[in-house]
Amino acid sequence: MVLIAATVCTKSGKALVSRQFVEMTKARIEGLLAAFPKLMTGGRQHTFVETESVRYVYQPLDKLYMLLITTKASNILEDLETLRLFSRVVPEYCTQLTEAEVMNQAFNLLFAFDEIVALGYRESVNLAQVRSCVEMDSHEEKIYQAVRQTQEREAANRMRERAKELQRERLEAAKRGAPPRSQMAFGSGGFGSSSMSSSSPTEPLIEKTISTPARDTRPVGRSAMKLGSRGTDTESFVSRLRSEGDPGAVAAPVARVDSKPVPADHKDVHLRFEERLNLVAGRDGDIQSFELSGLLTLRISNEQYGRIHVHVDNKDSRPLQLQTHPNVDKEAFRSQGVIGLKQAQRPFPLHSDVGVLKWRLAAANDDKLAPISVNCWPSDGAGGGCDVNIEYELEQDHLTLSDVNIHIPLPTGNSSVVVHQWEGSYSQKGRQLIWSIPIVNKQQKTGSLEFTVTPAIPNDFFPLTVTWTSDTSLALLTATKVTQAEDGSPVDFSQEISFHPDKYEIV
C-alpha cells in the first residue's frame, strides 16, 4: 500500500484529525504520530523524513502540519503531489487554521480525505471534484425533486377542478330550488364551507367530523399569506369538504377547534397582525423588488363575543391593497373601517384563528419603502486584501427592529478577518461574518462596521442578507376598538404584531 494515513497535527505531534487508509492497529498509528516531532529536531528544511519502515511527507500550515505517512516504496513525487492536494483541502473547509476550527470541521475533512485516497491509493480527482462530492450535489436528486413538485401541482390542479365542479353543482341545485348540499361557514385560516347531509328527517341531528391529515393542520398564517393569488377561495372550499352533518342541524358556522393552550396574555378576543417582507436591493441602494404581505387573524375564546365588530384604522398613505374575506361586509369596511359579517345573526367561530383581512404593498425603484437600508463599501486594500465598511440606517421611524443580524459572506480559502470598529457584536461562522445589533429604533437608528479581509476582492462580500424580528408593523394599520354587533358596547381585546423578512438581500 502507498499511503498509510493522512493527519492534521500540531508541531508538538498532537493529532487533530487523522484518517487511516490501511489495516493497522490504533497503537501502531499513535506510535508513528508520536515519533514524528522527534524526527523534526535539528531545524530540517525538507518536506519529508524517513525511518526504517515508513516515510513522513509533510507541509506546514501556519502553526499546524499536514502530514502523510507512506511506505518507503512509494513514489515520492506522487506523494508530494498528493500532499499538495491535501494542503489545499484543509483551508477550503477551515476559515482559520487553528486547532478549534480544524476539530470543528473534522467530519468535512474526513469526508474530503476519503475522496482523495481509497484503500491507500490516490484517486484521480481535483479540488473542485472533492468539493462537489462532499457537498453531495446530486443531479438525480434534483430531477426527482422536480418530478415530485410537478406531481404535487397536478394533484392540486385536480382538486381545484373538483372543487369548482362541486360549486357549480350547488349553484345549479339552488337555481332549481333544491336544498343546498353545503352551507357556507368559516374554517381554519380563513373562510370555507362545511358540507352537511342527513339520511332521514326523523334521525337525531349529529355533527360528524372527519379527522384531517397532519399536513392540513398547519398554522393559519401560512396558507392565507398568498395575497392576490387566484383560486384561494376554491382551495379553502376544498379543505372544508371534510365535515358532514344535517343541513338544518347547524345554525352557526363550524370551525376547526384548536387544542393549543391559550397564552395567559391573550384575552377572549385576540387579534394578530402578521407581516412578511420580500426585498432585493442593489449595491447602490436602489430597490430592485419589494413586496409586503400582511394578514389580520381573529381568535375568539368566549361565545358571548361571537358577534362583534373590529374597527380598523388605516393611516397609511401608500398604495396599500386591502382585501377582506368574502363573508365580511365589504361596504362597512370600505366606508367605516369595520370588520363584521355580512349575516349579522351568524357568529364568528370559537377557538379558531380566522383570517379576516389581507393587505399587500408591491413596488420597485422606490427607496422610501425599505424599513432599513444597508450600505456595503468594499475597497481594495494593501496586500491583496479588502477594507470593508458597512452602515445601516432605519428608514421608517415608527418601527422598532429587534435581533437585527446582517450576514456578510467571506472569501473561500485561507483568509484572515480583522474587525476594527463595530456596533453591537459580531461573530464568524464558517464563511460568514454575522453582525448582530440588539435593537434598532428611532433613538438608535444608525450604526457601522469596519473590517479588513486578506486576501479578498469586493465581489466576495455579496449578497448580504438581513434578518430581524419586530412587534411593530410596516403598514400603518391599527385596531382601534372592538364592539358588540348588537348594541355597540365595547369589548376588551388583546393584540400582537409580528413583522419579519422572508427575504432581504443586498446583491
Which characteristics define this entry?
507 residues; alpha+beta; Beta-Lactamase; nine-stranded mixed sheet; five-stranded antiparallel sheet; 9 helices; 23% helix; membrane
Widest sheet, order of strands:
15-17-13-12-27-25-20-23-22
Distance between the termini: 50 Å
General shape: elongated
* CATH architecture heading of the domain at 3-135: 2-Layer Sandwich
Mean pLDDT across the residues is 79
**Given the helix and strand composition, which structural class is it?**
alpha+beta
CATH C-level name of the domain at 3-135: Alpha Beta
Approximately how much beta-strand content do the residues carry? 35-45%
- Sheet bearing the most strands, described? 9 strands, mixed
Helix content range:
10-25%
CATH topology of the domain at 3-135: Beta-Lactamase
CA-based gyration radius = 32 Å
The total of beta strands comes to 27
Tally of individual helices: 9
Which segments are poorly predicted (pLDDT under 50) over 5 or more consecutive residues? 181-185, 187-235, 241-257
Main location: cytoplasm
Region (Disordered): 173-236
Pfam family, one: Clat_adaptor_s
Membrane topology: Peripheral membrane protein
